Amino acid sequence: MSVTKAVVPVAGLGTRFLPATKATPKEMLPVVDKPAIQYVVEEAVAAGLDDVLFVTGRSKRPLEDHFDRNVELEAALRAKSDHTRLAKVAAATDLARIHYVRQGDPLGLGHAVLMSAQHVGNEPFAVLLGDDLIDPRDPVLAEMIALRERHGGSVLCLMEVPREHIHLYGCAAVTEADDHVVVTDLIEKPAEEDAPSNLAIIGRYVLDPAVFDILRETPPGRGGEIQLTDALVRLAQLPADQGGGVRGVVFTGRRYDTGDRLSYLQAVIRLALDRDDLGPPLREWLVDYLDSGNDT
Ligand code: UTP
pLDDT tens for residues 197-217? Predict the structure, then answer.
């Protein structure tokens, strides 16, 4: 069965970006001139997934409004014959079939994914974390879906990180296969000395629906939250004919954590430099600024 649905959890509190995220979801922070979340939905659509379920929570209204029509704004732009901006406004609405489910209490990423069970049903599905931005020049989701179609089971996106940063991520123990890795174990945010590798799990997953039954039985783990990583460990141990097996793609492209202030700033600069309209003047200014000892 092929993958057609994307689940995008956006119910986290975004505490690393306070006070900006006190009343504005972190996923709505602009990266150049689009909210971060629009890149995520565009990535899903580019990989062939046009059914997108957001798992939302409190204060996520702006996100729902962004993907809805804004009739007054569209009428005003139409009256001015401003077709360029009209197209930009309509783009978010026309991207995909968008659905919402509320998480209520943010009890962890595993709990957020479980909220999607009814919508997803008994199909493999993708999970894209709303604050993880994969540079559109380095797509990876289609490769992950192809791996699932070849081998069944679930597929993670792994990225080598400096060992001293591994405590910030879920970490995978793996064995090498031809063009991918087989995941044998996972540890959520291990201390550097306990980490079995420097392969971090980043926010893209293709999951077998067997994950739902496992999540229903997964007790709160690290930080009192229901951890998706704990359920993935169980999936890795499950026989293939029961939906088990976890593989990984090792991603070497550009990726930003837009919930982290430094990574967010890097995303804005890198993506702006790539733009025809903003790139050349921004590059010129940046060079002058740095050359002048940050004094222009
Ligand atoms: P984070 O670990 O980044 O947590 O969640 P957070 O609360 O969003 O942000 P900080 O750490 O306080 O700054 C990873 C992803 O899982 C979602 C978040 O929205 C984010 O996309 N999430 C997390 C949920 O949807 N529900 C939860 O209960 C927890």
Answer: 999 999 999 999 999 999 999
Between the CA of 130 and the centroid of ligand 1 the distance, in Å, is 9
pLDDT value at 294 more than 90: no
86 C-alpha vs ligand 1 centroid, how far in Å? 32
Q: Would you list the domain boundaries of the chain?
A: 5-291
First to last CA, the chain: 57
Among protein residues, the one with the nearest Cα to ligand 1's atom 5 is 12
What are the residues whose beta carbons fall under 8 Å from the beta carbon of 239, sequence distance 6 or more? Answer: none
Closest CA to 67 of 10, 122, 124, 145: 10
In the reported structure, the alpha carbon of residue 280 is separated from the centroid of ligand 1 by a whole-number distance in angstroms of 35
Task: Please write the tens of the pLDDT for every residue from 13-45.
Answer: 889 999 999 888 999 999 999 999 999 999 999
Q: Which atom of ligand 1 approaches the CA of 105 most closely?
A: 28
Asked if residue 108 has its Cβ within 6 Å of ligand 1, the reply is yes
Q: What is the pLDDT of residue 268?
A: 97
Whole-angstrom distance, CA of residue 201 vs CA of residue 231: 14
CATH superfamily, with its number, for domain 5-291? Spore Coat Polysaccharide Biosynthesis Protein SpsA; Chain A (3.90.550.10)
Q: Spell out a b/e string for 134-163, using b for 16 or more CB atoms within 10 Å of the CB, else e.
A: bbeeeebbebbbebbeeebbbbbbbbebee
Number of other CB atoms surrounding residue 8 within 10 Å: 24
Q: How far is the CA of 21 from the centre of ligand 1 (A)?
A: 12
Counts for the chain of helices (H) and strands (E), in that order: 11, 13
Which residue type, as a one-letter code, is found at position 126?
A
| Mean residue pLDDT across the chain | 94
